[in-house]
Design brief:
The structure is a single chain. The protein has a domain of 220 residues: Roll (T-fold), CATH 3.10.520.10. 35% of the residues lie in helices and 26% in strands. The strands form five sheets. The protein has an eight-stranded antiparallel β-sheet with strand order 1-2-6-7-10-15-16-17. Strands 3-5-4 form a three-stranded antiparallel β-sheet. Strands 8-9 form a two-stranded antiparallel ribbon. The longest helix has 25 residues. The structure holds adenosine-5'-diphosphate and magnesium ion.
Length: 332
């Protein structure tokens, strides 16, 4: 009898609100979602919705899958304009906006050179490959026609990779799906791109920015709510070549080689598509030009670890700056 009563007490607790989590390997990285829901059935639907969005973006934009819509473009778009899905068109349009804004530091046609690197095998492009690729890295060679929703590449050999923007876009789609289901508190991450919805009830979430040179360590902890944060680092996919140089996955489009100005760049924005593209952009631009760009944009902030390991903050994160999301999160 006493045992039965104990069960009676437990049952109502088990259907109370709780955090629900799921992680999967997708888009070449770890995708995870954590959300607060008072109904386990709703939580299950919400987590399924997150991964459905991720799967869809992966299906369209994975450059390693020959069946993806992006791979079709890379094979065919130099021959004739191809009609693409609204999602792919949208991401390409945003990518080109960031190319224009950064004077080409962000350029998804970097892949014309990027395709010749293999970070696992320690392979870099030959001189001839690099020379040829440099003529093909130019976002103006990607021609979008908004009326027809078509994409064409102006010359043969242009290759596009959306690795610097698609994960952020996917995170936003997942968050939009959660909002549509009435979820108010969640965090969705795809590798270095995260978006936080709401808070932890009575306090903001604390997000750590990884230390670029100390594995499993953080260089900064920052309290955040209702914000996206993306970090681009030279420690994600890299090898050290015979000359002792770090060869990594973020390329300077003007050289086709790894950009060495900083160790990491983190960007805060309302939406992850923006924080993702801007973290890669800021990484390539370096401290001075990167902060100048970030400070010129409304509602965007950045934390940069320079080549010597020193931290730099955008104006909005400096003491005495007008309130930012991060400040608001600190208030009781
Ligand atoms: P991560 O993929 O580690 O989260 P990023 O958001 O910085 O980090 O994305 C790095 C990816 O961006 C690279 O793997 C590559 O696909 C792409 N990329 C590299 N250089 C550039 C560039 N100059 N412009 C646009 N995309 C780039
Ligand atoms: Mg990025």
């Amino acid at each position: 009898m006493r045992f039965l009563c104990f069960i009676c007490l437990l049952l109502p607790l088990s259907v109370q609100a709780d955090w629900h989590r799921e992680s999967r390997d997708l888009m070449g990285t770890r995708v995870s979602a954590e959300l607060w829901a008072d109904d386990p059935a709703l939580a299950e639907r919400a987590l399924a919705a997150v991964f459905a969005e991720m799967d869809e973006v992966n299906r369209l934009m994975n450059p390693w899958d020959p069946e993806s819509e992006l791979s079709g473009l890379n094979r065919e778009a130099h021959r004739a304009p191809l009609r693409v899905s609204p999602a792919l068109f949208d991401v390409l349009e945003r990518a080109i906006e960031y190319s224009q804004l950064s004077d080409g530091a962000f350029d998804v046609s970097f892949a014309s050179a990027g395709q010749h690197y293999d970070y696992r095998q320690g392979v870099t492009p030959s001189q001839a490959e690099l020379r040829d690729a440099l003529g093909k890295i130019n976002y103006t060679l990607i021609r979008l026609d908004a009326d027809r929703q078509t994409v064409a590449y102006a010359v043969e050999g242009v290759q596009v990779d959306l690795g610097g923007i698609a994960k952020g876009y996917a995170v936003d789609r997942a968050i939009d799906a959660l909002l549509a289901l009435g979820i108010e508190s969640a965090v969705v991450s795809a590798g270095g791109d995260s978006r936080i919805l709401g808070n932890l009830g009575d306090r903001p979430r604390t997000i750590g920015i990884r230390h670029p040179r100390k594995k499993d360590d953080f260089i900064v902890m920052i309290p955040l709510e209702d914000t996206a944060i993306s970090t681009s680092g030279d420690y994600e996919r890299f090898f050290i070549d015979e000359q002792g140089r770090r060869v990594h996955h973020i390329l300077d489009p003007s050289t086709g080689k790894s950009s060495g100005k900083v160790q990491s760049a983190s960007v805060l924005a309302d939406r992850a598509v923006d924080s993702d593209a801007l973290s890669t952009t800021t990484f390539v631009l370096g401290v001075e030009k990167g902060l100048a760009l970030i400070n010129s944009l409304e509602g965007i902030d950045a934390i940069i670890v320079d080549a010597r390991g020193l931290l730099h903050y955008s104006d909005g994160l400096m003491p005495g700056a007008p309130p930012t999301d991060a400040d608001a999160a600190n208030k009781p």
